[in-house]
Structures are given as C-alpha cells and as structure tokens.
C-alpha cells in the first residue's frame, strides 16, 4: 500500500531503515573548516561532524595543482584520523569507527597554482588576468575508513570559463571580501557566479567537494552513499 506522504515528510522519513540492506549509518567526519563543503554534504543528505585538521598548507610544495591538492587532502584526513587515534579511540560518539574525509581545492591557471589570494590587491590582479580566459579547479579528496585504515583518494578537475568583468566590477567584487576566502578568488554559488560563463565538469567539485565522486569513493569502501542519508 502506498503511504500518503504529507508535505513535511520526505520519502526518506517514511522508509523503515531497518528494512534496507544497508550497514548501520557510519559517523562521517569532515576534516575541513570549509562551510561550503559542510553545506554540500548536508545537501547530499550527510550530516558530518567537523574536525579541522590544522595542516599548515604553506609548507607543502608540488609541481602542479592537482598534485598539490592531492598531497594536502591526504595530510588533512590523516592528521584528523591520527588525532582521533591519539585519543585512544577512532570511534565517534555513536561507537562506530568513523569515515574521515579530507579535501583541498586549488586553481590551475596559466601554468600557475593558485590557492586563496594573499590580499585584495592579489585578488584584483588575478581577476584582471583571468577575465575572458579559462582555468581548471582541482579538488582532491582523501577518504579513510577509520575501522580498517583503508584510504581512497581521487582528484577531480573542472574547467571554468570566466566572463569579462570590468575593472569597476572587479573592484566591487573584491570589496565584498568573498574572493579572499576561496581558492582561485571566485565562487560559482556566490557573488562570483556572475563572472563565470561556463563550466566543463562537476560543479560541486568547484565549490569544494565532488559529491558524485564521493559516492564512488564510498562504494570502494563498501559504504553506499544512501546508507549515510540521515533521517531528521
Ligand atoms: N562556496 C564556495 N566556496 C568555494 C568555491 N571555490 C572554492 N571555495 C572554497 C572551498 C574551500 O573552503 C576553499 C578552498 O580552500 P581549501 O581547500 O584550502 O579549504 P579551506 O582552507 O577552506 O579549509 P580546510 O583547509 O579544508 O580546513 O575555497 C566556490 O565556488 N563556492
């Protein structure tokens, strides 16, 4: 018999989870201070606990943007897991070993590796160089199963095509402060979206965490993404 869904209920809340062939919901830890990543996980149905890794990104070097992001994502995830282990127990509050995800995003543009801008002047100079051109945003992901120590790593690239904002538009955008806190000095889901004409690839990857890729990484750890959907 089909159950009538009232407007407040989503399909998920009426499914009896015990009837699903999924393992118990695992605790999911996001090893990132990024509010954008946390929001992406929430929108994907995953209620993550946040533990900021504290990794000093400035001391890490690499030959290209994708490699740098990969090294940093791994350092962040492993630093958080080590912290949990150091506490004597990788179990999170519900007594189940946690899944830990570290991410890092950098922009590859004209042969340069660009993270967050150093200053408003840096953000301005970057925009004047990027406008009318394209760049590649790399987000690396390192997902570790705290129960087994098994790690899965993936780096995803999305090409961004920029519009041609005027000097006045760039000045107004930098003055908002938004470009100062994000890799590449732009967002696609905030004010910066006005200056991005086209993307080639996964848009969540640009924001900071590729949700379709996370689903495939979880599957490699035998954790169906849908098993993490939190019921309200
Ligand atoms: N909302 C939004 N945020 C973006 C976008 N592009 C990049 N970001 C943010 C996501 C990350 O918070 C930040 C990239 O810097 P990182 O990968 O180093 O992460 P963050 O320093 O924020 O935190 P973490 O190092 O992981 O603790 O830029 C975008 O299009 N939209």
TrEMBL record:
Its cofactor is a divalent metal cation. Gene3D superfamilies: 3.90.950.10. GO terms for biological process: nucleotide metabolic process. InterPro entries: ITPase-like_fam, Maf-like. Its EC number is 3.6.1.9. It catalyses: a 2'-deoxyribonucleoside 5'-triphosphate + H2O = a 2'-deoxyribonucleoside 5'-phosphate + diphosphate + H(+); a ribonucleoside 5'-triphosphate + H2O = a ribonucleoside 5'-phosphate + diphosphate + H(+). One of its GO terms (cellular component) is cytoplasm. Belongs to the Maf family. Nucleoside triphosphate pyrophosphatase. May have a dual role in cell division arrest and in preventing the incorporation of modified nucleotides into cellular nucleic acids. This is Nucleoside triphosphate pyrophosphatase. It comes from Dactylosporangium matsuzakiense.
């Amino acid at each position: 018999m089909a159950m009538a869904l009232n407007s407040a209920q989503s399909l998920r809340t009426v499914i009896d989870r015990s009837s699903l062939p999924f393992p118990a919901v695992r605790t999911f830890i996001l090893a990132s201070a990024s509010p954008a990543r946390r929001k992406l996980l929430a929108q994907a149905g995953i209620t993550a606990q946040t533990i900021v890794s504290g990794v000093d990104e400035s001391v890490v070097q690499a030959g290209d943007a994708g490699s740098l992001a990969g090294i940093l994502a791994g350092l962040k995830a492993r630093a958080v897991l080590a912290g949990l282990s150091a506490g004597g127990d990788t179990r999170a509050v519900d007594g189940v070993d946690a899944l830990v995800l570290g991410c890092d995003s950098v922009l590859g543009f004209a042969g340069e590796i660009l993270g967050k801008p150093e200053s408003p002047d840096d953000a301005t100079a970057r925009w004047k160089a990027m406008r009318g051109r394209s760049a590649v945003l790399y987000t690396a992901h390192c997902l570790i199963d705290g129960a087994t120590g098994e790690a899965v790593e993936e780096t995803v690239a999305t090409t961004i095509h920029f519009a041609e904002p005027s000097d006045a538009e760039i000045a107004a955008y930098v003055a908002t402060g938004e470009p100062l806190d994000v890799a590449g000095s732009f967002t696609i889901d905030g004010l910066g979206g006005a200056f991005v004409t086209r993307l080639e690839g996964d848009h969540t990857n640009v924001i900071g965490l590729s949700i379709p890729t996370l689903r495939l990484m979880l599957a490699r750890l035998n954790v169906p993404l849908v098993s993490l959907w939190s019921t309200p």
